[in-house]
């Protein structure tokens, strides 16, 4: 059924796409139509064509899928946030399938495979050079480039050098603490055993054993053994070791981004401000935000990378703090002194990388940031810690952020909470 819808839409998509491109060339000035294009039929049709590539892949129609991916990448008007995924999939097809689906032109089998691997290599290079290919896809493209260069036996001196990407696996730390389990009265319906092994309500057994994904309760070692969350318990352990920190789950990053990009957020762009009371432009949570302000964003990223973050932060804080202006993501509860220390401890290039990801994918990457944000002014270092108890596991969004932070040279830890003792209450 999905394939039938795709086949019906495809010819119309090509026609409308050509019309939109002519409109862009003749009518719109730079950035004029980026947001409003989301409301055109071509935006919807492009999404359907994108979904069609997945269906073709499932039906093993890889040659047609490759053709569609090339057509999607040839246009720059719609769904720019998906371009990285299109490059990845196209390179994969070229590496593994296209050698058997295209004419050999006199090449033997081995030469044909190498020919398409070189094409896959160029596709990955194009992806890294495409300004609309978002940063979160660069790591996978770089890994594929390194693999293809090894397979093609390209001399070391001619291979790409990705030494600037300091990707490392997050360190694992085990924190021991006291977990609290709440006892519950036995169920009145003794015959109902479907919802728990002892007739409980589905949250565990009668002794309160937590189910997978359930929030656990711990005792805080620094707060007179008061009850707290697992994140607060781990934060107390880090504080005892000299770290300052917050359990913010991205609140610090969103606040820093709101301060550092305050004027960029409220730069005039047609059609994205409808009232004077907006906390952000209408396109912030879309893929139109970044390309519409490409020059302004990169100028600010360069300033942050060059160490001007503290000056920008203080200027915006002093200008807006008294009114506590509602700006998306900004929490005025964080003290200025803490924010200044954080920016000073954050390497300029690393902070610039994090802000670039937020600018490109604010709507998708607002979540998934590790639970704890930590900094040590004495060492001039920041660190993120993702807290996991025995009931938790990393989500895909969390893995993306860990890769981004590690690639920027920021230390990341996986903090595994282990119960050395269980107390019934």
Give the arrangement of secondary structure elements.
Blueprint lengths: L1 H25 L14 H18 L3 H13 L8 H14 L1 H4 L7 H21 L8 H14 L19 E11 L35 E3 L7 E3 H11 L3 E4 L3 H10 L1 H4 L23 H4 L1 H12 L3 H12 L15 H10 L2 H13 L1 H4 L6 E5 L4 E8 L7 H12 L3 E14 L1
Parallel strand pairs: 1-7, 6-7
Antiparallel strand pairs: 1-2, 2-3, 4-5, 5-6
Describe the protein.
The termini are far apart. With 425 residues, the chain is an alpha/beta fold. It has helices spanning 2-26, 41-58, 62-74, 83-96, 98-101, 109-129, 138-151, 230-240, 251-260, 262-265, 289-292, 294-305, 309-320, 336-345, 348-360, 362-365, 396-407, and strands at residues 171-181, 217-219, 227-229, 244-247, 372-376, 381-388, 411-424. It is built from 17 helices and 7 strands. The model is unreliable at 192-208 (pLDDT under 50). A hairpin with a 4-residue loop joins strand 5 (372-376) and strand 6 (381-388).
């Amino acid at each position: 059924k999905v394939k039938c819808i795709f086949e019906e839409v495809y010819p119309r998509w090509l026609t409308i796409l050509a019309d939109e491109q002519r409109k862009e060339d003749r009518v719109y000035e730079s950035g004029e139509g980026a947001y409003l294009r989301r409301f055109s039929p071509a935006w919807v049709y492009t999404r359907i064509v994108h979904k069609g590539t997945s269906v073709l892949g499932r039906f093993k129609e890889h040659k047609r899928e490759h053709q569609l991916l090339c057509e999607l990448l040839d246009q720059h008007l719609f769904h720019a946030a998906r371009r990285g995924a299109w490059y990845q999939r196209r390179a994969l097809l070229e590496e593994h399938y296209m050698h058997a689906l295209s004419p050999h032109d006199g090449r033997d089998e081995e030469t044909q495979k190498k020919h398409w691997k070189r094409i896959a290599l160029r596709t990955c290079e194009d992806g890294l050079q495409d300004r609309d290919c978002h940063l979160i896809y660069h790591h996978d493209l770089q890994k594929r480039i390194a693999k293809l260069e090894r397979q093609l036996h390209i001399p070391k001196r001619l291979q790409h050098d990705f030494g600037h990407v300091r990707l490392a696996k997050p360190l694992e730390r085990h924190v021991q603490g006291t977990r609290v389990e709440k006892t519950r009265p036995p169920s009145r319906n003794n015959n109902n055993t479907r919802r728990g092994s002892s007739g409980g309500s589905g949250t565990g057994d009668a002794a309160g054993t937590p189910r997978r994904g359930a929030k656990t309760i711990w005792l805080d070692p620094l707060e007179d053994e008061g009850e707290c969350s697992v994140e607060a318990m781990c934060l107390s352990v880090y504080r005892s070791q000299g770290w300052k920190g917050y359990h913010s789950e991205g609140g610090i990053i969103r606040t820093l981004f709101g301060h550092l990009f305050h004027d960029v957020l409220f730069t005039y762009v047609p059609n994205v401000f409808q009232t004077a009371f907006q906390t952000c432009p209408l396109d912030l949570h879309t893929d139109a935000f970044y390309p519409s302000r490409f020059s302004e964003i990169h100028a600010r990223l360069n300033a942050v990378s060059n160490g001007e973050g503290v000056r920008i932060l203080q200027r915006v804080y002093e200008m807006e703090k008294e009114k506590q202006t509602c700006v998306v993501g900004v929490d005025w509860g964080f003290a200025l002194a803490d924010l200044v220390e954080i920016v000073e401890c954050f390497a300029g290039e690393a902070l610039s990388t994090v802000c670039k990801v937020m600018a490109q994918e604010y709507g998708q990457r607002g979540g998934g940031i590790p639970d704890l944000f930590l900094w040590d002014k004495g060492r001039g270092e920041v660190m993120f810690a993702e807290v996991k108890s025995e009931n938790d596991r990393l989500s895909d969004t969390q893995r993306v952020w860990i890769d981004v932070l590690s690639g920027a040279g920021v230390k990341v830890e996986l903090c595994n909470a282990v119960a050395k003792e269980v107390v019934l209450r």
